[in-house]
C-alpha cells in the first residue's frame, strides 16, 4: 500500500505541475505534451519513456488495488460482530479511504478515455491536449466529474501520506506534527493545482 | 442515581446473544462502573436471574482484566479502565450501552467476558527476554541511558486489557504488540532477541486473525495507559530492520 501509494503520489505531483502549462497558452501546453514523448531520445525511441511510466503506473495501481482489497477483507473479517452502540470514529479522510480509492480508480478510467484516447472527449483530437482540455471543461459533466474526483484525491492523500509514513517506520512522537502538516499541505496543493484548470476554463481565464 | 442499562447477554460462546435492558437504582456517583454492575448483579441474584458475567481482578486499573465497551467506547468515556471509571461521569436517568470487546480474535465466553488468550500467544512468541533468573541483579551491572529507560517504561505500562483491539475499526492488535516490542527492544536486556522478537510476534499476531492497521488512531485514544500511536510506526521500523537482516 505504502510504496505503491507513494509512487503514484510522485507521479501526481509531476502531473499537476505539468497541467499548469495550460495557463501559458496552447503552444506551451501542446509543446510540453510533445516534449514528454521525446524524453530519453535518442537512447530511447519516441514515446518509450512515456510507455515505461505508463507500465510503472499500471503496476502501481493494480498492486495498490489488490493490497487494498486484501487488507480490507482482513480488516472486515477481524470484526465480524459490530457494536450495537455505533460511534463515529476517526477523521473523514480516514473513513473514506476505501470508497474514496474506488472513486479515484473509476475516475482514472474516465480520465484515460477522455484525455488520453479521446473516446469520450467532445473534441478528442490527438496531439492537441490544450483544445481537448478546454472542450472537456466546457461541459457540465466534465467539470463535475473532475471536481468531485480531485476532492476525493485530496482526501485520499491526506490520510494516505500520513499512513504510508507510519507504515514505512518514519513516524515518531517528535515527528507526528511535521508529518501531519506535510500530508495536509500535499493534499491541499495537489487538489488546488488540479482544480485550477477546470475552474480557469469555467471562468473563461483559459479558453 | 437511576440508570437504564442495555447489556449484551450471551449464555455461552455458542449461544446467540442479545442486548437486554435493566433498570438500576440507588447508584452512588462515587461507585466505579464495576461496583454499579455488582449492584445490578445483586438484584439479579435476588430475583433468581443469572448475574452479568464480566472479567475483573485488581479493580485499581493495573491488571488489565476488566474491559467492556461502554456507549461505544472501550472502557467508557474517560481514559481509564472500566474498574476506575466512576459513575459521576454519567448523569441521573442516562441509558448506558454495555458490550463485550468485539473482535474475531477475542471470542465471547459469556456476556461481557471475552477470551483474550490470543494476547498470551503473541507474548509467548517473543515478548520476553532470555535472562538468567535468580535474585535481582545489581542495578549498576547493566547501565541503561535515561531516555531509553523512559521509552521502555512508557511501553511497559501496557496492561494487555485489549481496549486497543476493541476500539480499532479493524480489530487490529498493532498497538498492543508494539508496546511489548518497544519495551524490550529499547533495553540492553532485550537486544539479543531483538530481531526474532518482532518477526515472531507480528507473525503470531497475524495468525490470530487480528486486522491490519490503517492508522485510524482509535487504539491510542482508547488506551487507558496512554501508549502513543507512533509506537506502531516504531514497531514497523523494527520489523523492516529485522526483515532486512533475516
Ligand atoms: C485503485 C484505486 C485506489 C484504491 C481502491 C485505493 C484504496 C486504498 C486503500 C483501501 C488504502 C488503505 C487505507 C488505509 O491505510 O487507511 C489506501 C492507501 C493509500 N493510498 Fe490508495 N487507493 C487507490 C488509488 C490511490 C492513488 C491514485 C494514490 C496516489 C496518490 C493513492 C495513494 C495512497 C497512499 C499513499 C496510501 C497509504 C498507504 C499506507 O497506508 O501504507 N491511492 N488506498
Ligand atoms: S480490574 Fe484490574 S484493571 Fe480493571
From TrEMBL, chain B:
Q: Which organism is it from?
A: Streptomyces boncukensis
Q: Can you give the residue ranges of the 4Fe-4S ferredoxin-type domain?
A: 149-179
Q: Which cofactor does it need?
A: [3Fe-4S] cluster; [2Fe-2S] cluster
Sorted keywords for this record are: Iron, Iron-sulfur, Metal-binding
**Protein name per its UniProtKB record:** Succinate dehydrogenase/fumarate reductase iron-sulfur subunit
Q: What's a Gene Ontology MF term here?
A: 2 iron, 2 sulfur cluster binding
Q: Indicate the family of this protein.
A: Belongs to the succinate dehydrogenase/fumarate reductase iron-sulfur protein family.
The segment(s) forming the 2Fe-2S ferredoxin-type domain are: 1-102
Q: Does the keyword Signal apply?
A: no
- InterPro entries for the chain: 2Fe-2S_ferredoxin-like_sf (IPR036010), 2Fe-2S_ferredoxin-type (IPR001041), 2Fe2S_fd_BS (IPR006058), 4Fe4S_Fe-S-bd (IPR017896), 4Fe4S_Fe_S_CS (IPR017900), Beta-grasp_dom_sf (IPR012675), Helical_ferredxn (IPR009051), SDH/FRD_Iron-Sulfur (IPR050573)
Example GO BP: aerobic respiration
Please verify whether the record's keywords include Iron: yes
